[in-house]
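User: I would dearly like some help making sense of a protein record. I have put the entry right below:
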Amino acid sequence: MALLRSEDQEYETSISIERGDAKILKNQFWQRYMVTLKSGAYEFTLGSKSASSAAEDECLFCRKPQDEVAKMIEKLKMLVDFDREKFLFEPAEPSFELSIVRAGITGLKVEIWIDAGNAKTGIYRWDGVGIRFYTLQEHLISFLKELEEEFAW
């Protein structure tokens, strides 16, 4: 599981992305995943790790012909290496939008919006639930490493 947590130790806020199993559709390789938002005592999870899961929603990353996870990792590396000031990612099957903006040398502002409607119905909607928090460069580096390990081929 890849976990991006806030810098606040008293009131835990985080985003986690967890890899699921594969799905092949029309010569394309798709990867199921779960995304979880946590803020204090509140938690929201979207997606499932397998087709046999009881969850009704389905979150998918395209892995072939274009690897969305590799693209996300590449852009995050650029942010970590100070080659860019902003990061914006939304998968082809939009179930979330993740935005990270540099705020000083070691700080970052994180926002994630969940599009539960698309994952449940297959119809893209713009309404959803989200969180925002402040994190540190060291937490982003840890998240990037965990993401690379979680989604390694």
